[in-house]
Design brief:
77% of the residues lie in helices and 0% in strands. The protein is an all-alpha fold. The protein folds into two domains: 64 residues, Arc Repressor Mutant, subunit A; 136 residues, no CATH class. The N terminus is likely disordered. Pfam families: TetR_N.
């Protein structure tokens, strides 16, 4: 009996980790409303009852794999990255590396934040991400933007959100993810520079 009890204690962290990994994959692929505890159990290769031994509800399991402070930390790193871009820092600046490392360390959790947050405490995060980037840009203009200018920026940054989420969702290999993000920035940043130049010219002409 003692040996069996010891075996259960040794195995428990491994089973818990397998359940958490399966849950994160399910949440990132299907979203929170579309994921059941039975689906998580199947993905983890265990019985639903065993999942409930570790997590009494889907809510507690979600909180374990997408912790409450994740969004705050992401916002801090995002602000640092945007500030570095505004100062014309190199694209390989520490801020860029820190944000990318965070994305890779929390790959599927970031996917949930950016694109699968419906039905969770982070339901407003995707729209907030777009609004945050939009406001960063608008603060660099000298006059209030028109409704059309704001809308264009929102469309651009919503595309950024969806593209980054798809890259992180599909690129399981860290080297591949880095290469894909770099490729996306090589397209996105020059286009954003051009758009900002256009908006600044429009702002100057409106004076």
């Amino acid at each position: 009996m003692a040996g069996g009890s010891l075996m259960a204690q040794v195995r428990k962290p491994e089973v818990r980790a397998r359940i958490e990994s399966a849950a994160l994959r399910c949440f990132a692929e299907q979203g929170y409303p579309g994921t059941s505890m039975a689906a998580i159990a199947a993905a983890a290769g265990t019985a639903p009852g065993n999942v409930y031994r570790y997590f009494p509800s889907k809510e507690t399991l979600f909180a374990a794999v997408v912790p409450g402070d994740l969004a705050d930390r992401h916002d801090e790193l995002l602000d640092g990255r945007v500030a570095a871009l505004a100062e014309r820092s190199p694209r390989t600046s520490p801020a860029a590396g820190e944000l990318l490392d965070f994305w890779l360390d929390h790959r599927l959790a970031v996917v949930v934040l950016l694109d699968r947050a419906a039905g969770t405490p982070f339901a407003g995060y995707p729209a907030g991400f777009v609004a945050r980037l939009t406001e960063h840009v608008l603060r660099s203009l000298d006059v209030p933007p028109s409704a059309a200018q704001r809308k264009v920026l929102e469309i651009v940054f919503d595309n950024t959100r969806r593209t980054l989420a798809e890259i992180l969702r599909t690129a399981e290999d860290p080297a591949a993810a880095r290469a894909m993000v770099s490729a996306f920035w090589s397209y996105q940043l020059p286009g954003l520079d051009g758009l900002l130049g256009f908006l600044r010219e429009g702002a100057a002409g409106a004076r």
